[in-house]
Amino acid sequence: MVFSEATTFCFHASAQARSFTACFRWGASRLSNEVLSSGWICRAFVGRVRCLMQAMKIESAKLRASAKGLEECPSSNLPEFAFIGRSNVGKSSLINALTECKELAHTSSKPGKTQRINLFTVNDSWTLVDLPGYGYAKLSREKQGEFNREVSAYLTERENLKQVMLLVDSQIEPQGGDLSFALWLQECGVPYSVVFTKTDRGSDSKTANHSGQFRAELEAYGLEPNKIFMSSAKTKKGRGQILQWIEQQLPKKPKKKKGTAINLKWMK
Ligand SMILES: Nc1nc2c(ncn2[C@@H]2O[C@H](COP(=O)(O)OP(=O)(O)OP(=O)(O)O)[C@@H](O)[C@H]2O)c(=O)[nH]1
Ligand SMILES: [Mg+2]
Question: CA-based, 20 to 30 A from 104: which of 64, 179, 219, 267?
Fold first, then answer.
């Protein structure tokens, strides 16, 4: 092929390519306009996301035991999810928000309300555990020491403990006590996740700032929680994500086998 022929061919080819591209663009824009204007793709997408995000349905939640220490905790095969954190961080309130039972766990604006290991059975298949908080200055040294011993024994020796949810107040700057607790959990090999609480209380930027600082501190200490959640017991923010994640940690229920249809007509 000589130069001129080649140029003509190139011209035709590029003209064809342009018209093909134009055709394709036109077709694609018609298609996307129609699809979008009908709302079909949006609805399908949102529906799929909602379906994936659907929180576990809470059918029942009841107090199983209120134990002074590990020895008093009834033995159980159900997976346990224990809530720990500073006094007043919102452990009992979050348990009530998750189960949608306002008075399941006792809450108070005064710190030091929960003083026992409270076990709540949910859907007869898993357990939420409300623990006494740490760092309540007004508690006598003796009492605080007793709590620490009992809670530590529970956290390190309870065989069916699946995950510790370490609650951290999103409205205050990172506290040494919370970081030390995360460090201790990691050193003991106890699986844990972090849940920032009370996100409704301050502006989004304040919440993001404090939680960001805390995450940076975790990283600086080489701490790696399994998950990090943002939550509010008041607005129920994070409820869906926490429940969905808990559900993923539960043993899978065996699927019911479809029975073979038996034809009994021949017996007549
Ligand atoms: N605005 C707001 N207040 C909250 C939230 N969670 C808890 N609170 C309030 O914080 C206070 C303490 O809540 P609790 O759930 O009793 O805290 P706790 O961690 O169980 O406390 P202790 O049992 O003393 O360790 C109460 O006045 C709650 O109403 C929240 O998400 N938003
Ligand atoms: Mg409490």
Answer: 179
Atom of ligand 1 nearest to the CA of 115: 23
Per the document, the length of the chain is 268
- What is the rounded CA–CA span in Å between residue 155 and residue 165? 11
The shares of helix, strand and coil residues in the chain, as percent rounded to the nearest 5, are 45, 15, 40
Nearest ligand to residue 107 Cα? 1
CA dihedral 87, 92, 98, 104 (to 10 degrees): 180
The C-alpha angle with vertex 264 and arms to 263 and 268, in degrees rounded to 5, equals: 140
What does pTM read for this prediction?
Answer: 0.79
**Residue owning tokens 């609650």:** 167
Question: Going along the chain, which residue ranges are E strands?
Answer: 61-67, 80-85, 117-122, 126-130, 161-169, 192-197, 228-230
- pLDDT tens column, 38-59: 444 444 444 444 445 577 999 9
Element (H, E) at 152: helix 141-157
Query: Which protein residue has the closest C-alpha to ligand 1 atom 6?
Result: 90
According to CATH, the topology of domain 61-249 is Rossmann fold (3.40.50)
